[in-house]
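Form 7-S
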Amino acid sequence: QVQLVESGGGLVQAGGSLRLSCAASGHTFSYYTVGWFRQAPGKEREFVIGVNWSGGSTNSADSVKGRFTISRDNAKDTVYLQMNSLEPDDTDVYYCAAVWRSGDYIPLSPPEYFYWGQGTQVTVSS
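Output:
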């Protein structure tokens, strides 16, 4: 079992930055690929960005390329999502998710992930 806890959400003005954290417990986190997803009310959960188990491979949605980056510190069992140049359309609940896998492939769809955090709200004002 892996427990994931997101933090770092909040209210920010357009053009600002936030850093989200996803802290894991319960199992060696370095074995897991981690993705960040976001979801607005009434919409499907969408992939934002992900990192493989080693941190050597990342993938991101076109909508956040050049603005969002992901990193991980396996010694701290934590994955970070750095969000810069935030836009009002980035307003959503952000979730981190994990799946036990090796290699460079980063799953893009929610059913491919096994563990989920409770989410953290990000609100970007115009």
